User: Fold these one by one.
Assistant:
Number 1:
Amino acid sequence: MSASIATSQTILVVGGGIAGMTAALEAAECGRQVILAEKQPMLGGRTALLYRYFPKMCHPVCGLEINLRRLRGNPNVRVMTMTEVTAVSGRRGDYTVTLKTRPRYVNENCTACGDCGNAVSTTIPNPANYGLDKIKAAYLPHGMAYPQRYVIDPSIVGTAEGEQAKAACKAGAIDLGMQEETVTLKAGSIVWATGWRPYDAAKIQPYGYGRIANVVTSVEFERMADPHGPTGGKLLRPSDGQEAKNIAFIQCAGSRDENHLRHCSRICCMASLKQTQYVREACGEDGRSTIYYIDIRAIDRFEDFYQSVQNDPTVRFIKSKVARIALDEQSGNPILHGVDTEGAHRYANAHDLVVLAVGMVPEVTGVALPEDILLDSSNFIEGSQSGGMFGAGSAASPLDVNRSVQSATAASLRAIQVIHQTASTEAV
Amino acid sequence: MTTANQTARAKYENDFLKEVEANVEEGHWVRMCMQCGVCAGSCPLGDAWAHPPQKLFMMIRAGKREEVLSSDAMWMCTSCYNCIVRCPRKLPITHIVHGLANYAHRLGLAPKGQPTRQTAALFWNNLVKKGRVNELKFSLALYFKDGFGQGIKNALGMQAVGLGLVKAKRLNPMEILGGHGIENLSGFKAMIDKAREIEDRKKGLAG
Amino acid sequence: MASKEYAFYPGCSSQSKASASNYLTSVNTMCGKLDIKLTEIPDWNCCGASIGYAEGGELPRLALSARNFALTERHLPGKEMVATCAACWLAQREVKERLDHSETLLKETNEALAAAGLQYQGTAPVRHMVEVLIEDLGYDTLKQPVVKPLEGIKFAGYVGCQTNRPFGIAGESFENPLYLDKLVETVGGEAVPYDQKVACCGGALAFSEPEKSQKQIRAIIESAYDHGAEMIVTPCPLCQANVEIYQSEINKKQGTRFNMPVLYYSQLMAVAYGSSAREAGLDGQLIKAARLEEIAGK
Amino acid sequence: MADSKFAAYICTGCGIGDTLDVPMLEKIAQKEGKMALVKSHPFLCSTDGVKLIEDDIANEGVTHLCIAACSRRAKVEAFRFPAAAVSRANLREGVIWVVAEGAEHDAVRQEMAEDYVRMGCAEIKKMKVPAGNVKEASSKKILVVGGGLSGMTAALAAAEAGYAVTLVEKSGALGGFANNLWKRVPFAAPYADAQPVGAAELAAKVSGHAKIKVHLNAVVAETSGAPGRFAVKIAQESGGMTDDVCGAIIQATGFTPYDPARLPELGGGQPNVVDQAGLEALAKAADGGPIKRADGKEVKSVVFVQCAGQRDASGQHLPYCSGHCCATSIKQATYFKDRDAGINAVVMYQDLRVPGMGEDFYRSAQDKGVTFVKGRAARVTDGGGACKVDFKDLILDEDTSIEADLVVLATGQVPNAGVNLDEWTATVTAAESGDEAAKTRKDELLKTSVLSLNYRQGPDMPQFKYGFADSHFICFPYETRRTGIYAAGPVRRPMDILQATEDATGAALKAIQAVENAARGRAAHPRVGDLSYPVARLEGCTQCKRCTVECPFGAIDEDEKRFPKFNEERCRRCGTCMGACPVRVISFENYSVDTVGSQIKAVNIPDEFEEKPRILILACENDAYPALDMAGIQRLSYSAFVRAIPVRCLGSVNTIWITDALNSGYDGVMLMGCKKGDDYQCHFVKGSEMAFYRTSKIDDTLKQLGLEPERVLSLEVAITDNARVAKLINDYAEQINEIGLSPMKGFG
């Protein structure tokens, strides 16, 4: 990290997920100065919480490792974690940005040795597992966390536990007096790579999320399948801890639905196809996956993956938007009610576990953005009126990882163009 | 004499979708269906439907006019509105289904003797007579819709219930002599007639 | 002067000696205790209910409800219309929605209304009595008059369809609305969770498809029993009548031994507010609510 | 090395000092490691600790330093000393966090730490700070091949960022396929109506841009050189030839629609059956008026058959989905509906694929009265008057048919990617062995080349799948296998105009990066910024050509004397050439046969009576080494008998390391690389695969040495395999225990 002072030649990237990291690194590797602001205590965003990527079934942290190495080796990028943009003023080529940084209560001295974590017994819901398990209130957010620094949860600040954590740190890294800080910076162009969040599944009432224990979301299922997740990679039912073998995947849980999200979230079909292979990985031939869908949107060569899953005898496809889920109180099984529209066949299917393929909501939904920003009807960022700010990745459109990176790379060049043109004008 | 049915068929040249859009209440929504089937699965009487709503919509697009209009599927609607609140395209499915039933009924294509069809007609005729429903007359009419003998049987079958209601002051045997009604009945009837006239003109049902 | 005044649309079933006359009785008692004044809309007519479509079609049906609005606008200007019947409320709301969003239908409807010397302007909103209670008064206010809390009685709140879908009560969910449970708790009773809360009783087909309708009813009552309920409470006269009246039929045909009282929320409130069994319309029950009568008699 | 001064710094923080005998480590660094300066510090990564090192560099003339502390992946920023060569001895994640707790393990833990200090010192002895190779005359101009929407967008994007562009277009006009379109699908809210294409406006901008030079009616006749210095011959159709020098290349050569004539069962080739391009032509001809068929009849009904010759599992047609066709058919259906709502327009689909806001466009078309039928077309018959489409209605579950004036087949995109290098290599190999037909074929192939690269590996970009010149990586869509050359638009992947616009802009950025990197002598992704580059001692070279053949990026040519000629700017610094070289003449300044070999030799091998085996791990630095690290972070314990060395890529592993290790008494060698095969994870393409192949050949050597084949174990390890890697190590240690210690001890 360099302590360079931001100028109108600086590009601000908001959001440190894969799109934001890409936008920042691509610009930095073109020799530009970049500030990368991330709300969470670590970089990586949603992709760091995925077990595998479709269609290669490779691990997202592999790409994260490369991006982090690029970042560690590049002094052009200044990373600010736990930081949010609170105000933007000015115009294309000359923005003034206010950033607010929450206290981490741990400074740069931290060596991630773990002594503070050992000294603390309070636990908090683990954000890296969507709260499915607990971690200590002094924690390293992720095995691949960057910055590789612990976080003290505010809940133990001002308590004896907090003091114990501080006392345990031999590096003098814990500063319980840390305060929220606000800084104002200049930037010539801003890339909004603020990403997405899963649609609130509880709003899809007929599916009983929150009421029926064995109805989970697709993002939670990612964590359940991951050996680093709360169940150690076992597909265990929340209701009774039994192994789930017969699993239903419900597509368009929120998406393509005017009661919820107008848009198609694009990734969910592929994500569920991928997750059927988690079931196979965990249960082998004993696994049963059923995908309830309207249209399977496996675009371009993803079709290969769809075809291979279709050839998997453990996977079944039913063209139907599930009407409702009832709970069998005896077994804890969710019972799916609906009609297979290919020939109008009614079903009431019991499954061990139901995975809702929840849609993508732009993370900025409900956040006050600069007036200049143009949003579409689903709050995805189309750009800005004056052309100095750009959406990137899934902030701009519901995109898969590959297309997010493509989008972020494009946004990075657009920001560079602004900087270049500003510099040319200033030179004249 | 050409029937309304023949006129409609001639007018829409076998384009049943267009006919539905023009003549069926909320029929213009049919085109927006994306065949997800959530309506079909949401219906409490779903298994009684020969063709669930989403399939009816597809049949309309496929031009299966007689099959749709003579079906008793849409007479299975209990007006629970589950389909409406779950439809991802916000189709007012309950109303479309009601509209289809009404259209089939008015064209004379709905199944003869379909009990809901009969009940509905009795109910409407009952309410327009006085402006308010006469529950006793409605019940009696229902019992006797299949003839006198069956009517006595029906009425006897429900005798205990009827007596219970009378005892509980929730059924008035004296209603047979008149019962509740509105004051401005002539205005009311003129209004209903006018509404019917406009609708029939619009939907080609005047014949 | 009453604290709240409304234009009252009782509906056909809530007339004297009609199937929901006990509903009317209890509503009047409850409103008296809560200082709510209901002025009946002069010369109101039937809403057409959910079965009116087949013979009535679209425009005549719209005209029915539009006439009720027009009468309210003319005779009780500035007043909100309040319905106690779910079907009446729904019909009025639907028609209002349709007329307020379609110039064509508005024009045609007014053309029909003109034949009765009336006009729909769209100034009067329609509310369900439950909305009046929880939105205009609030649970705290509703709790104040309670003198005989219904302690120890377990109720299955049966919301059913038409106060719930497609509009529902603001802030409530379609699958698990809670207002009825909260009303039960407000008067000191216990609301049991059960899975048939918003199921359809098949009321619209009660006459024409009795087997199908009674299958629905049986499921509702069984679930209420299974979850420990002693009584069912509902905001809808069609649900009340259907679920109560056909229990004996089902018992007869299917050998069940159902004997579950089905009450209106207003009856619970009347009793809790210290009214007599008669004032609460408990004499109108086919299946007697003995424990409520007991409380009312104390 | 006269000016070199070596120093070792041992951190005692994070429990290192509590667990290990640090004075002993210091002594080893001094005595065995031959470090001129050895210091320990309780908190080396602190400002104070870093200052200690900086001061020694400034005041003591330290040029090479070994930091014995945490993993090389930790505290990277703190321990960045650009002027010095740095090695890292991993005492924290690699020793104290993974060796089981307890006094009974004290001895082996200490031995492990001592070995890592020895290794770090040995490595730094062989390292140099890469000098870099800044090139004064490097070209920053960008060559764009293809003047369609993607090419024009890329050209304009680069030019607007200040870079000069040469654009070569085969035809006589800019615009490409977009010129054939009547309208395009909408890109912005409200996503309701087809929009003007805008190709002409874009073409005017490109033609008029001061930074862009457009060559029409021209092709690339030859490309030689490397990023920063591509020499390009541009051949005009007229016969003229222009020479140009460019720094990077964007290939935006687009696609060709799949030929509908190959779909006779769907009426392909019949007059009233057209493909989507054919419909665009009819719409353009109609110019806003009624769309007419070839026979002049006004179209009153039209059926769009989706997935025609696509998503084909039979192997006859395209297996993939072209992605854009659903939205395109929707758009085309609105051509009819917008003009005359009475026209019957039916889209027959199996899965309607309109992701994102395409859903709005779908709804809008439904609202306009386009009918959507989920059905599978079986046969289209053109009866002259009307076409009949026989299909299975998947909703109504019946075989039925529909009639229409016109049928539109939504066929797919076939990439214009040039020569398939697999075919090329096979053809060249055959031709070189004298096959005459192959020689002819080679010439034919060359004529179809887009870039005409004179690379040893062939004239065009490698194709990934189905002929698309795509990257293999999800996280890195522009990770090209030809450094400085990027594919953009439908030649990379099937895509619509919106995505092609994004793609072209992204590719332009990568091209800009490529020219900047080349000018500074820096590596491109993934070892971005690496200033080291391979150097060969040609006097030792036997001209075996393994390096040239095995370089995954085509970076090495052969010079006139058949020696390898390294094109540093094409090189990605993976070291595959170094691993391939049987005579070990290839090295990087900071990574060589010696830097690793000396570490292997530095390990203290106990004699066989001590019963302490030594197992060498050569771990890919991108996946396996982080997995080992994370095992440490999670405090998973594994055998203290292993000694792990990170390598740039398993492809860089020279078998001499393995044989040397076994010769000197190691009991086993574990190679840990990434996944190989079709879904390979290696960012250097085949590193892992080659290592597996090369080690499979070691068996003979092992036999000669009298060693069991189990003494060398090649493994695929994913970055998430922290628990698994610990288990693999322990299992292997157990296996070695069963086989027994190496008989080679004491001979090394």
Number 2:
Amino acid sequence: MTQLQSPAEPGTASAAPSEVRPAEARSLLATAWLRIRRSKIALLSLCVVVAIMLFAILAPVLSAMSGNDPFTSNTSPEVLDDFETPGLPLPAYMYPSASHWLGVEPGLGRDLFARLAFGGQVSLTIALLSTAVSVVLGTVLGAAAGYFGGKTDAIISRLMDLFLAFPHLLLVLSLTPILQSRLRDTPLGQGSFLPMASLVIILGFFGWAYLARIVRGQVLSLREREFVEAARSFGSSHLSILFRQIIPNVMGVVLVYATMLIPTNISAEAALSFLGVGVKDPTPSWGQMLNAAQAGNWYLSDPWFLAVPGVMLIVTVLAFNLLGDAVRDALDPKASRH
Amino acid sequence: MIRFILRRTGSLFLLLVAVSFITFTLFQFGPADPASAACGQECTPERVQEARVALGMDQPFLVQYVDYMRGLISSRMIGAPGAESLCQWPCLGKSFQTNENVSDIIARSLPYTFSMAIGALVLWTLSGVGLGLLAALRKGSPTDKFIVGAASVGVSLPIPVTGLFLLLVFVNQFHLLPFTTNEINSPFGPQGPWAWVLNYLLPWIALAVLFSASYIRVTRTNMIETFGEDFIRTARAKGLAPRTVTFKHGVRAGITPVVTMLGMDIGLLLGGAVLTEQIFSVPGLGFTAVRAAISGDLPVTMAITMLAAFFVIVANVVVDLAYAAIDPRVRLQ
Amino acid sequence: MKNRSRALALAVLIATAATGCAAGQTQPGNKPSAGSVTELAPQIVKSGFTTKGGNVNVLMSSDFQTLDPGNSNYVQTANVGQLYYRTLTMAKETAGQPPTVVPDLATDTGKVSKDGLSWTYTLKEGIKFEDGRPITSADIKYGVERTFAQDVYTQAPQELNAALDAGGYKGPYKDPSAVLKAVETPDARTVIFHLKKPFAEFPALASRSNTAPVPKDKDTKLDYTNHPVSSGPYMVQSYNRGKSLKLVRNPHWDPATDTNRTALPDTFSFSLSTSQSTISQQLLANSDPNAITLDSNGAMQTSDSAKLADPQVKDRVASGILGCNDVLSLNTEKIKDPDVRKAIALALDRQSILVQYGGRRFGELEQSPLNSKMVGYTDPGLEIDPAGKPKLEEAKKLLEGKDYPKTLTYGYANNRDSYKNTGTVVQQNLKALGIDVQLVPIPAPNYYSVLASEQLPDMGRSGWCGGADPSSVRTSADPILGPNNDGTSYGFSNTSRYFDPQVSKAMYELRNTAGTSEELGKKWAEEFNKALKTYPIIPLIRSHTNSVVGSNIRNAQVGYFFGGIDLSIVGVEH
Amino acid sequence: MTQPSQTTTPGPRAAGSAAAGTATGAFLEVRNLSVKFPTDDGVVSAVNGMDFTLERGQTLGIVGESGSGKSVTSQALMGLLKGTSAQVTGQALFQGKDLVTLPEAGMRQLRGRNIGMIFQDPLSALHPFYTVGHQIAEAYLVHNKASKKQARAAAVDMLGRVGIPSPDMRFDEYPHHFSGGMRQRAMIAMALICEPELLIADEPTTALDVTVQAQILDLMSELQQETNSALILITHDLGVVAEVCDDVLVMYGGQCVESGPVDGIFYDTRHPYTLGLLKSMPTLTTKSGRLNPIPGQPPSLLALPHGCIFSARCEYAALAGDGVCESQRPQFTTEDGHGSRCHLSSEQILTIRNSR
């Protein structure tokens, strides 16, 4: 059995150009890592991603170091203008300073650095968890559709069509408030968990169909491969074949898709919170901060307030995108050769 | 071919029914109650009940749904007993907010959405395919690297950030462009095509930056792949001019995935670019849908969701037909 | 986006958009010391203009919900309605003041019977519809009848109907044979209303759009909004829903019958879908000298406030106080101890809350939800700081040794940031008292029905716009803190659920007492102030509106009631 | 084919020399042709100093494992590497013009008209979106001032000549309507429509089944004789070579390891690699004889060994002694128009050959 598994050559790795290098049997991940290490851009984006993750994880520590927290407001006239443009931070507080590393927000005078860091926690958690939900759903459903075929396939495929045809944003717009009102009385719905849980569920639930379609295609061809046939002839159960033979062999594709889905979900969180249906004040997230910047046209008189979450968002999405490209190139040399 | 179209129409119909039913059902569980929204601060239970009658919400759920769907087949009467009014086919109901025919609201919103979609589409297709092709032809050159880099940044620009940034810089700070006005929704209006272009330029750019970035990537990848195909080598071996090889043989074959993408994106965009319309206050379908969703205006939300799904599904069919036109191999099936 | 909702219900007005200002008194650059600004004088742009003619462009971010006088609870409709419908009496606006009730279609503001239960009106002569047909008492009665059909007109104004002795009348549609006995029309020029209880402010109720005449044969029910038949100086020439509305002169309107409306411009052109940010930018830049807006708060965004002092703009700002104000309502069933409620009131930093509403240009701190301009008003003498500074030490002292809730919820309508931000400030303030506040967003359209339900939050922002008669204490005091119809519990819109056996009973009895508005006003104010001193609600902000107009616009005043430019007297240089 | 004999008797058609002689004015003369590809992993040396000549009416077979550089050689000759990152050096004189230095525009004039090419997999080599006839007519139109009608007539005629039944009807069909053999015939028609003097066929029969292979080979020979063109046949199928070619060139690691008249290669084999190739053929009489790989891996073209490129896989490397095979690149030595690149003496080779 084990011997049958090991030559696993998941379609993607076999394409190493024979003129260049003898096809050595390196493991998928090792090859991938080697390739990533060779690309400066990939390494740089990996570093940025790690740094952003650390920034988010260490949010409580970092904001404590700066002496602020994301929720304490300060509307005293020494901080915020209270006459000409009421609520606009005075210049000393609008921009980075020793007491407020990124200045304070207009209106409530809360510390921007702390909100950015804690907002990162929220945004990234939502993006990562919803990606995980999509990936699990997509892989399992896609693999099941491809492997079992017949009615299972028909049902799952129709479901995929439905999900792909649905105008997501519109549906999510009407769905999120519903879900939030349902979740409010459950443990998931407490405090800042509420918007996070609802966004994770919704983004996760709407992201699986595309992956499922890809996985299904892969599994359709895998199903006829010798090692699956062999496992079948040894009398392995369907579930064991599915989870031990099939799914490990589509992990390459899944990994590529997952790394590309993360930045998509980061943007989606930002979009929904921006529209006011996602994360809501006082819980910070990068999308919520964008929403706050647009509210009352604050960004026109305090562009810095828009720049802080905006630049953070762009850098994060860019880093994840570049990393995603690198992972795809590494795992799928057919694409990378270009 | 006829069978193909028939089959697709059949599945289109089923999908629409599914989409409408899901939307309708979801709405029943929504936190917003249109009836109690109708009377505000003096909503005694009796008044809410009257409002339910007025909005037709006193009927059982399934009756409401069937009534609604009936309007898609023929005209129907809407309203409280004694005060019914005719809703002409195709009847999408009447707005809970303004009692307007939803079909009128949609008809009013469509030109804005079209204006947004068309300009953005032209902009991003030209720039996306053009730059993608250029990068593919100059593969490995500094030009290629620059384009690929710009595309990577482009896909990473969230619409809210670009949109607000464009407004801030071009409108508010430097007054280079006018504030978007809702008076203009077609190039044939009294203000002329130029005013139309200026009015929609920023939303177009915001959309096009994002979209063209992914078109650049897809075009480039596919063109490089196609340029590596055997038939391109054959074409060169025949002694064809490079231009013929590139366009007649290369682009025609390499463009198919772009056509698919384009079709799907058009479908999506016709359903309303929710974010962009919101940021630039363009009262297209997306903008209207958001307003309706927030205020609990079920008929409007329903109709726009269905219309958006309809566009996506039709776009799918059109893409398939376009495929058949481009690729003779598909015609066989 | 923030000021989208213009659904200012008229009678029991919901203050969803409650902002206003008067930039007149304070000099820019000269920061007034806290508390010195108590009230800002209204500013009317270029008054005294009398030239007829010209066109006024009215910019609006969205269409009117309706133009049907029988289906409108909206201030914008009421404002534009002055142009195409007339009512028995009329609430005439004066900037900075509650409106005065004056005769309109009727010859006077009504004659009351001795028992106070019947009001009689006589129609003027020479009043006609736009088609030249004379307006009769039957048309008035039919207008009132329609507003009983709440299953057709969800927004039908109900203050008048609630006062009438109408039995179970349900409007003219469902059962055409039913008769509305509460309105009598003995002849073509006389209308008599029969009431359940005396109502000193009835002339104000008669100014409601219920009494706008509707010719029965022209009633197109819900489609009436597309072309309401005019009885006023202008009529609908074209109405393109969601896009434009054009009003032109009604040739059958006789100015001799109407002293309330100057009707100077020849036409009004409404643009119904210009985004708010565009409107404010256009008005500030004077890009259309004939333009005004009806959007709430003059379509101004918070960050536009600094531009109002600009010399190019200053003279074009019409401003004034509104009847609307915002309070923090405490659930007295949850927070039972008046001392605890007082402590909460004292701990609030109301100045910070004002900043969330856009600062001094958009509102002022108030000491009572009632207005000193109301007939019979007396100051309640609350201990909250007029300048809005928290009195933390006093608050803490009040709580010493008390058992009070350590966590409270704050509910807010999710359509405006100032509501949410107010919650953030409250949260911050109460932390000092050891109370943890959780913010609960509530869908804006359902906000008040949630407040009236079991899901009522412990605290909530609540708005009030002056009641059926903005100059009367009673029509505000009763709905805010009064008892229910039989006096056994709190009233329907009493969101703090205040019920005190003595005070509430006194209020209940006042309802059945006949008398002049002034006499009754004093008594109401007395009871109301007693209630207020137990802090069921904490007064916060009284709204101001600034509305910038184009440079050709004359006689532009901000209505106390409408919150926008008063269309009945506006003029344009041409 | 008879049993290999030990005596070298150059066949009557082997008059032209495949050796590195200086047959000035030859129809095609390739000298020291090298092709290198810079990649992320280093420089790939795909072809390293090829020399051969070819005359009209002759057929040259180029044989080798995949990756030995035979296809790259053909592409270099066609100028298909121009405009890519490939670095082509050396000379390839075609009727006196150097194909290596000829600019793309000039090269384009030759392609199709003077040099035709047939590719391995006709399904992928034909454009899927255009009709077969269109693609052939297009080739005609590039080099002939003709109307579309004339081009069609020419293409139909050519389709008929390559043995496609009812060519007028098949003209309007798409490649995917054709069977594999038909497609290859169409490819040949396309390559020959302008009657080129030199035809390069890159594994023309590999993708076809055995019976069709024979038909295609016959067809090519026929047409070659009709037009008296020169033919370079690239293949890894020695059976095909034996059947069609006059001269043979064996490639390994981008180098020519042995070349000479076809009989010489088969019966007087002088390189252990060629021996290996022959040995791995099941029987020479069956046409399906495919090469079974010789033990070991082909050399990495990123870093060629200093010594004999084949030394790592050569069973007889030890026979040369002193490790010379590992340290020193052998010279290409020619004898009777039959050359090879091996350190072993002809006696040693003879011994090895006999010992089989």
